[in-house]
UniProtKB/TrEMBL annotation:
<keyword id="KW-0101">Branched-chain amino acid catabolism</keyword>
<dbReference type="InterPro" id="IPR002204">
    <property type="entry name" value="3-OH-isobutyrate_DH-rel_CS"/>
</dbReference>
<dbReference type="GO" id="GO:0051287">
    <property type="term" value="F:NAD binding"/>
</dbReference>
<dbReference type="InterPro" id="IPR013328">
    <property type="entry name" value="6PGD_dom2"/>
</dbReference>
<keyword id="KW-0496">Mitochondrion</keyword>
<dbReference type="InterPro" id="IPR011548">
    <property type="entry name" value="HIBADH"/>
</dbReference>
<keyword id="KW-0809">Transit peptide</keyword>
<dbReference type="InterPro" id="IPR029154">
    <property type="entry name" value="HIBADH-like_NADP-bd"/>
</dbReference>
<keyword id="KW-0560">Oxidoreductase</keyword>
<dbReference type="GO" id="GO:0008442">
    <property type="term" value="F:3-hydroxyisobutyrate dehydrogenase activity"/>
</dbReference>
<dbReference type="GO" id="GO:0006574">
    <property type="term" value="P:L-valine catabolic process"/>
</dbReference>
<feature type="domain" description="3-hydroxyisobutyrate dehydrogenase-like NAD-binding">
    <location>
        <begin position="215"/>
        <end position="340"/>
    </location>
</feature>
<dbReference type="Pfam" id="PF14833">
    <property type="entry name" value="NAD_binding_11"/>
</dbReference>
<dbReference type="InterPro" id="IPR006115">
    <property type="entry name" value="6PGDH_NADP-bd"/>
</dbReference>
<dbReference type="Pfam" id="PF03446">
    <property type="entry name" value="NAD_binding_2"/>
</dbReference>
<comment type="pathway">
    <text>Amino-acid degradation; L-valine degradation.</text>
</comment>
<keyword id="KW-0520">NAD</keyword>
Amino acid sequence: MAMMKMKIYGYRLRALLSTSLSSSPFHSVPSRTFSSSSFENVGFIGLGNMGSRMANNLLKAGYKMTVHDVNCNVMKKYSDMGVSTKQTPSEVAEASDVVITMLPSSSHVLNVYNGPDGLLQGGDLLTPQLFIDSSTIDPQTSRKLAVSVSNCILKEKKDNWENPVMLDAPVSGGVVAAEAGSLTFMVGGSEDVYLAAKSLLLSMGKNAIFCGGPGNGSVAKICNNLAMAISMLGLSEALALGQSLGITASTLTKIFNSSSARCWSSDSYNPVPGVMQGVPSSRNYSGGFASKLMAKDLNLAAASAEEVGQRCPLTFLAQDIYTEICNDGHETEDFSCVFQHYYSGKGERN
């Protein structure tokens, strides 16, 4: 009788596990080690301020590159450097083992993947084993694309790669870190694939952090930038109030940085002109993270909060403030310009 009960329990457990796995939108696969040895040919699409610097670091690391961008002048620059350039994303895919995209928005990413001559327009048969999207987009789009990629098959199977796979791997650090190769990658997808891609990512950055399943890299990026925006607003508000009450921003900054108010916005990216050298506020808010990009990221955070019904009042306030900054003509200035253009803060030398 005891043996019969154990058999019945075993059948029920196997049935439960089978049902659980099949109901997941991302089919679980047995853990296996993926090799990165076949990542010889790297395609890169999106050669803007961030993408061009990331691609340059891959070139320095010795990867064979194939690139594409809508900007003809950028394409000519890479062609003159001896880098293979292609007119469409699909042509990049044909020449690549792995394709990295770094694009402005979800709509651009969807067009590069699914549009005419897109990365997935080769039908079900694809050449690249791996797709990495480093754009800052909404998690829902990242997850849908991961499913689309996994539903394709490889033209040629190598090592343990049976189907093409995708990682969402947005970055933190901005243009300066992209130039220096010190970006932090926030990676969503299969952990086995993340481990295989890690050396490739570390050719462009100093950190690669696994965040969980598909879309979780995009989640991490949105939450990181949300916290950064709110932190900058809080610091700017405190510094501007301090100025109005008669204390200098440099004095307040010294106090903040040696007490509980210390944060990245105060000790590494101070928004007050004249307090810190080498940051956008010291050069009229140029050369940093544009306010229009912060507004875009806050729009993504706000939409995600509404979708899951999460209370996020500071998200929506920050969204309103940065939208106002952009509408007032400061969309290309660094997001720390909120100190001057929203709070009417003064430079330290004034």
